[in-house]
Write a structure and sequence with these properties.
alpha+beta, Arc Repressor Mutant, subunit A, Alpha-Beta Plaits, 2 domains, 5 helices, 19% strand
Amino acid sequence: METVDLDQFDRALLSKLQVNNQTSARVLADQVGLSESAVLRRLRRLRRSGVIVADVSIVHPAVLGTPLTIHVLVSLEREGIAALDAFEAKLRGRDEVKCAWYATGEADFVLLLQVSGVGAYERFARDVFHNDPNVKGFQTIIALREIAGLSNRSLSVCGV
């Protein structure tokens, strides 16, 4: 994505929307010191230019039956284009994968999973990691609890 020039009003609007994208233009206008029509124009421009990628609702995973959050660091044997594309395609086909990043360092991929429990994760690991000869290894990090007050500061929605 190209860099987009954002002024203090754009940044203030984006900050407010990242906490609650249902905030009305009238309320946003009061909060950032602009007219409602100026806020609407700016929001249209931010959406058109790709700064705002999506307007979403974030649903608590426990309500969906997937209360266990797991991060996985995955290392591959080979990182050729075909191998990367194949692994990425495998990840795209799995509902458990909420976010995935191709990364540098010890791990080639960092995954964020939401699963119903340890048994579901074991099945996922068998299907995705153990059955793939290109997976050299993986490290599992199980989240014990979310730290209150941090997640809603500026949410990064995966998959956008």
